[in-house]
Amino acid sequence: MVPVFKENDAYILGVTLHEARDRVTDKRLEEMVYDTAKKALDAVGLNRRDLDHVTIAACDELDGRSISSMLLAAPSGAYLKDEIKATDSGLTGLCLEATRIRSGRFHLGLLVSWNKSSIAPFEDVMRMRCEPFYTRPIGLNMSITDGLFAGAMRGADEAKASQVAASYGQAAARNPRGVARTPAGADAIAASPYVSTPLREGHRPPVTDGAIAMVVVSGKWLNDNPGKTPMARLSGIGWSLESYQLGAERLSSMSGLKTAYSNAMADAGLSGAADLDVIEIEAQTAYHDIATREALAIPADQIVSPSGGPFAQNPYFCAGLVSAAEAVLQVAGKAGPVQAGQVKTAAAIGFHGFAHQGTVAAIFQEVPA
Which of 22, 56, 234, 275 is 20 to 30 A from 267, comparing alpha carbons? Predict the structure, then answer.
């Protein structure tokens, strides 16, 4: 029997991750992007001419290029194609791609995101995102705002954060798609220097270079191409943006996370964390993991970030989309050594901006054979 897919639903046909490295020194950024985009299409037996659109997600400042899409749209496969760009995060790019597919106007797209974190001074870029008259002169940056976020959390002490970071490191060491590192123990993490009290260096993953490409198709395209089998269905997606101001309520409430997650779950027709087999969290610090579990009332026995999250690889701008790729691989049963058994439904949660200002949640479900 030929499966019949709902025409305007979005499906992930293929996922390709660039080899994770601390620094990619043998390729220009354009080469990284081109290689990743081409491998994604090759892996599903398609070529660039088949595409009807391309969605890219990138940051001009972190790319070190003015209007970086002028140089990188073509390597992404967008030459003479309908192309659009998201600038908040790689996972925001997935939101944009999903809305394009669901509109019914597009059916075969390539979503490409990247961050060669080694080519731009990360904290200098983040400091320039502060407003220019007060917070920029005092030197506010990502490390300080993450420290403020950690300090605003009630009941999240340093010892617990060190244990969480150690667990992430152990999971990351098992992930063949991560940067090979010897995981640090909780004691070593607790002894690492402070970055912004109570946040220690060991509580956060190092940034790395990386890129990701996803081939996303509509149900109509699948019905017209019965020889192609999707890895997962993107059944739900939600996003939210909180206030720029870093008051106590803004830092501790996690209201944006709750909104994005509840919208994604409702979109997927699910009621709570018990309906999920795996949750991948873009934990840019151990405190992000602790706060996410608490805010969403995730059960203690829930499987969370078996990939190691950003502690495996952390191309900062697209780290949330990497988490989505890991969720897709779990649903497809192709996560390798970090596969969490039979996974029918997986969620990916990503953050962007100062102290989790923006949140995106995506739900992926198994496609029955």
Answer: 56
